[in-house]
Q: What sequence folds into this?
Protein backbone atom coordinates (compact mmCIF):
# COMPACT_ATOMS: atom_id res chain seq x y z
CA UNK A 1 0.00 0.00 0.00
CA UNK A 2 1.43 3.44 -0.85
CA UNK A 3 2.67 5.78 1.88
CA UNK A 4 0.00 8.34 0.85
CA UNK A 5 -2.75 6.09 2.25
CA UNK A 6 -1.32 6.40 5.76
CA UNK A 7 -0.33 10.07 5.73
CA UNK A 8 -3.72 11.29 6.99
CA UNK A 9 -4.74 8.27 9.08
CA UNK A 10 -5.28 10.03 12.42
CA UNK A 11 -8.15 11.26 14.58
CA UNK A 12 -9.98 14.27 13.22
CA UNK A 13 -9.16 13.52 9.58
CA UNK A 14 -11.29 11.20 7.51
CA UNK A 15 -10.36 9.93 4.06
CA UNK A 16 -13.52 9.79 1.96
CA UNK A 17 -13.51 7.30 -0.87
CA UNK A 18 -15.78 6.14 -3.64
CA UNK A 19 -17.10 2.70 -2.63
CA UNK A 20 -17.14 1.38 -6.20
CA UNK A 21 -13.74 2.54 -7.41
CA UNK A 22 -12.07 2.67 -3.96
CA UNK A 23 -10.56 5.98 -5.07
CA UNK A 24 -9.99 8.59 -2.39
CA UNK A 25 -12.17 11.49 -3.45
CA UNK A 26 -11.72 13.88 -0.52
CA UNK A 27 -10.31 14.42 2.94
CA UNK A 28 -12.62 15.67 5.69
CA UNK A 29 -11.14 17.59 8.63
CA UNK A 30 -13.49 17.30 11.61
CA UNK A 31 -14.35 20.48 13.51
CA UNK A 32 -17.11 21.77 15.74
CA UNK A 33 -18.80 24.72 14.05
CA UNK A 34 -19.14 28.16 15.62
CA UNK A 35 -22.91 27.80 16.03
CA UNK A 36 -22.62 24.72 18.25
CA UNK A 37 -19.82 26.31 20.26
CA UNK A 38 -22.14 29.26 20.89
CA UNK A 39 -24.93 26.85 21.93
CA UNK A 40 -22.59 25.24 24.48
CA UNK A 41 -21.41 28.62 25.75
CA UNK A 42 -25.02 29.75 26.15
CA UNK A 43 -25.84 26.54 28.04
CA UNK A 44 -23.02 27.24 30.49
CA UNK A 45 -24.23 30.82 30.79
CA UNK A 46 -27.72 29.49 31.56
CA UNK A 47 -26.29 27.18 34.24
CA UNK A 48 -24.49 30.12 35.85
CA UNK A 49 -27.50 32.45 35.67
CA UNK A 50 -29.94 29.92 37.10
CA UNK A 51 -27.61 28.73 39.87
CA UNK A 52 -28.71 31.47 42.32
CA UNK A 53 -28.81 29.80 45.72
CA UNK A 54 -28.64 26.21 44.50
CA UNK A 55 -26.17 23.69 45.91
CA UNK A 56 -22.67 23.29 44.50
CA UNK A 57 -23.43 19.68 43.64
CA UNK A 58 -26.37 20.72 41.44
CA UNK A 59 -24.20 23.26 39.60
CA UNK A 60 -21.52 20.62 39.00
CA UNK A 61 -24.14 18.06 37.89
CA UNK A 62 -25.49 20.51 35.30
CA UNK A 63 -21.94 21.20 34.09
CA UNK A 64 -21.23 17.46 33.85
CA UNK A 65 -24.44 16.90 31.86
CA UNK A 66 -23.62 19.72 29.44
CA UNK A 67 -20.03 18.50 29.01
CA UNK A 68 -21.02 14.86 28.48
CA UNK A 69 -23.63 15.92 25.93
CA UNK A 70 -21.07 17.95 23.98
CA UNK A 71 -18.37 15.28 24.10
CA UNK A 72 -20.58 12.33 23.16
CA UNK A 73 -22.06 14.23 20.21
CA UNK A 74 -18.85 15.65 18.74
CA UNK A 75 -16.27 13.14 20.06
CA UNK A 76 -12.89 13.52 18.29
CA UNK A 77 -13.96 16.73 16.56
CA UNK A 78 -13.74 18.53 19.92
CA UNK A 79 -10.04 17.83 20.29
CA UNK A 80 -9.31 19.17 16.81
CA UNK A 81 -11.17 22.45 17.30
CA UNK A 82 -8.78 24.82 19.05
CA UNK A 83 -11.45 27.44 19.75
CA UNK A 84 -13.66 24.86 21.48
CA UNK A 85 -10.80 23.68 23.69
CA UNK A 86 -10.21 27.28 24.75
CA UNK A 87 -13.95 27.70 25.37
CA UNK A 88 -14.03 24.55 27.52
CA UNK A 89 -11.20 25.89 29.68
CA UNK A 90 -12.95 29.25 30.11
CA UNK A 91 -16.33 27.68 30.91
CA UNK A 92 -14.84 25.22 33.38
CA UNK A 93 -13.12 28.12 35.15
CA UNK A 94 -16.41 30.06 35.23
CA UNK A 95 -18.19 27.13 36.90
CA UNK A 96 -15.41 26.84 39.48
CA UNK A 97 -15.47 30.60 40.09
CA UNK A 98 -19.24 30.44 40.68
CA UNK A 99 -18.70 27.78 43.34
CA UNK A 100 -15.89 29.79 44.93
CA UNK A 101 -18.04 32.92 45.03
CA UNK A 102 -20.75 30.92 46.79
CA UNK A 103 -18.32 30.63 49.70
CA UNK A 104 -17.26 34.30 49.45
CA UNK A 105 -13.67 33.38 48.67
CA UNK A 106 -11.50 32.86 45.62
CA UNK A 107 -8.31 32.16 47.56
CA UNK A 108 -6.55 29.32 45.66
CA UNK A 109 -5.27 27.62 48.82
CA UNK A 110 -8.87 27.05 49.94
CA UNK A 111 -9.84 25.42 46.65
CA UNK A 112 -7.25 22.87 45.51
CA UNK A 113 -8.30 20.92 42.39
CA UNK A 114 -9.05 17.90 44.59
CA UNK A 115 -12.16 19.72 45.90
CA UNK A 116 -13.67 19.87 42.41
CA UNK A 117 -12.47 16.67 40.72
CA UNK A 118 -12.64 14.10 43.53
CA UNK A 119 -15.64 11.75 43.20
CA UNK A 120 -18.64 12.47 45.40
CA UNK A 121 -18.25 9.13 47.16
CA UNK A 122 -15.07 10.34 48.85
CA UNK A 123 -16.02 13.94 49.55
CA UNK A 124 -15.47 15.90 46.34
CA UNK A 125 -17.89 17.51 43.91
CA UNK A 126 -17.29 14.96 41.12
CA UNK A 127 -16.68 17.60 38.45
CA UNK A 128 -15.70 16.31 35.02
CA UNK A 129 -12.89 18.13 33.24
CA UNK A 130 -11.94 18.90 29.68
CA UNK A 131 -9.69 21.77 30.72
CA UNK A 132 -6.70 19.41 30.98
CA UNK A 133 -5.15 21.26 33.88
CA UNK A 134 -2.15 19.90 35.70
CA UNK A 135 -2.26 18.80 39.32
CA UNK A 136 -0.12 21.15 41.43
CA UNK A 137 3.03 19.67 42.97
CA UNK A 138 1.75 20.42 46.48
CA UNK A 139 -1.26 18.13 45.94
CA UNK A 140 0.86 15.21 44.73
CA UNK A 141 2.24 14.42 48.18
CA UNK A 142 -1.02 12.53 48.76
CA UNK A 143 -0.79 10.59 45.51
CA UNK A 144 0.75 7.16 45.07
CA UNK A 145 -0.69 6.40 41.62
CA UNK A 146 1.13 5.73 38.38
CA UNK A 147 0.85 7.98 35.36
CA UNK A 148 -1.32 6.39 32.66
CA UNK A 149 -0.32 8.66 29.78
CA UNK A 150 -3.15 10.98 28.81
CA UNK A 151 -2.97 12.99 25.57
CA UNK A 152 -4.35 16.32 24.31
CA UNK A 153 -3.53 18.77 27.07
CA UNK A 154 -4.40 22.43 27.47
CA UNK A 155 -2.34 24.91 29.40
CA UNK A 156 -2.89 25.12 33.11
CA UNK A 157 -1.02 24.77 36.36
CA UNK A 158 2.34 23.04 36.09
CA UNK A 159 4.96 21.19 38.09
CA UNK A 160 7.97 18.97 37.38
CA UNK A 161 6.18 15.64 36.91
CA UNK A 162 3.32 16.98 34.74
CA UNK A 163 0.77 14.68 36.35
CA UNK A 164 -2.69 15.41 35.01
CA UNK A 165 -6.25 15.45 36.23
CA UNK A 166 -8.18 12.66 34.46
CA UNK A 167 -10.44 14.20 31.87
CA UNK A 168 -13.56 13.13 30.07
CA UNK A 169 -11.91 12.66 26.66
CA UNK A 170 -9.92 9.69 27.96
CA UNK A 171 -13.13 7.75 28.65
CA UNK A 172 -14.90 8.24 25.31
CA UNK A 173 -12.04 7.52 22.90
A:
Amino acid sequence: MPQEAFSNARDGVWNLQNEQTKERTAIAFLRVDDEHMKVFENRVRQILMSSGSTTFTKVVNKWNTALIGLMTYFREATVHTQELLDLLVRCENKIQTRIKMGLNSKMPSRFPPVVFYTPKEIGGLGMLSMGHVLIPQSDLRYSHQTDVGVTHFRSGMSHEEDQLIPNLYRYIQ
The mean pLDDT is 78. The chain is about 40% helix and 5% strand.
